[in-house]
Amino acid sequence: MEQQSIHKRRAARRLAMQALYSWHFNDENPGALIDSFKGDEEYVRVDKAYFKDLVSGVINHQQELDEVIGKYVSRTAEQLDQVENAVLRLASFELMHHHETPYKVIVSEAVALAKKFGAQDGFKFVNGVLDKLSTELRAFETADQ
Length: 145
Fold this sequence. Notes:
This protein is mainly alpha-helical and about 140 residues long. The protein has 8 helices and no strands. Helix 2 runs antiparallel to helix 3 and helix 5 runs parallel beside helix 7. The chain is globular, with a radius of gyration of 14 Å.
C-alpha cells in the first residue's frame, strides 16, 4: 500500500474512533453520524470509503463485536472507558472484516489512538485485549508468531 493511502487510512481510523465515541452518547444512525463528520477539518485527509465502512460496520456489528471483546474483558461495554471501548470495537471490526490489513498494523494503530485519546494507561489495556483477540480472530496470521 502506498504511503499516501496509509496516511489516509490512519486518518480514517482516528476520525472513525471519534465518530464512534460520539455515537455512544448520541446514538445516531450511521448515515447521519457519517454526514455530521463531513464538516470536520480532518475529513479532507481521510480515506472516505474506509471511514464510512468502519463507522457503519462497527455500528451494524456492535453486538457481535461486544461479545467477542467481552471474552477478554471482565467489564461490560458500558463499564469500559468510552474511548477504549470505541478503539476496541474499531480494531475488532478491522480484525474481523479487513484481512487485507495485517493484524500488527491494526493493533499498533489502536494502541496509538488509545495513547492519544484515552486514559493515562488505557493503551496497555487495549494492547492486552487486542493481543488476545488477534490470536483468536487472526489465527492464520498469528500462528507463526
